[in-house]
Amino acid sequence: MQQQKVAIVTGASQGIGAGIVSAYRKNGFAVVATSRSIQSGADEGVLAVAGDIRERAVAERVVAAALKRFGRIDTLVNNAGIFIGKPFTEYTVDDLRNMTEVNLAGFFHITQLVLPHMLRQRSGHIVQITTTLVHQAIAGAPAGLALLTKGGLDAVTRGLAIEYAQTGVRVNSVAPGIIKTPMHPAETHAVLAGMHPMGRMGEVAEIADAILYLENAAFVTGETINVDGGQHAGRW
């Protein structure tokens, strides 16, 4: 019998992360879901592991729990991240530390720990959630530290894709525009919708759909899919 595939999703307790967990479950995967505040639910196919992904010990615990419970790791979705938009001169040292630790160190720890298991299997898929602003900045929406850190993930996606191209491990990313999640109050939606050429915000399901496309696209690696209502295409 074919063994059930297993995905690890970081930043999984709400918003995009919760939507990704749901999408993978609907596609038959077992999921290890991790975030600082996540709690166990009724679905036995979802293993919740609480902790701060910027800490290497948490990443080690997530990987160990996945292997103990399900015996394998097929996909890693690096969704955990912090986005702080403000003028560059107004960022604080705490902003720099927090965004670097979560966006970059969090990615580094869990990805480095997952890769050896994928390499032994000769198969695996790693996906980063970045931001479309990496490809097209928007006047009036300063986000220097977000670009610095998420831009690093965008670059390393291509680097790791080439490094592991002949091992069976693929590496891709999805770059969202502004997605309708609880972090955006309803009263901001009209303004945020206007920041996309298509005139609306994105939906969580649309990010999950892009990830699942990449999951099944066996000949695609090193790719970033912009799910942004056309933001990356240029000025409008």
UniProtKB/TrEMBL annotation:
Pfam families for this protein: adh_short_C2
Entry annotated with the keyword Oxidoreductase: yes
Protein name per the record: NAD(P)-dependent dehydrogenase (Short-subunit alcohol dehydrogenase family)
Family: Belongs to the short-chain dehydrogenases/reductases (SDR) family.
Molecular function terms, GO-annotated: oxidoreductase activity
Keyword Oxidoreductase attached: yes
Family annotation (PANTHER family): OXIDOREDUCTASE, SHORT-CHAIN DEHYDROGENASE/REDUCTASE FAMILY (AFU_ORTHOLOGUE AFUA_5G02870), SHORT-CHAIN DEHYDROGENASE_REDUCTASE FAMILY PROTEIN
UniProt entry keywords in alphabetical sequence: Oxidoreductase
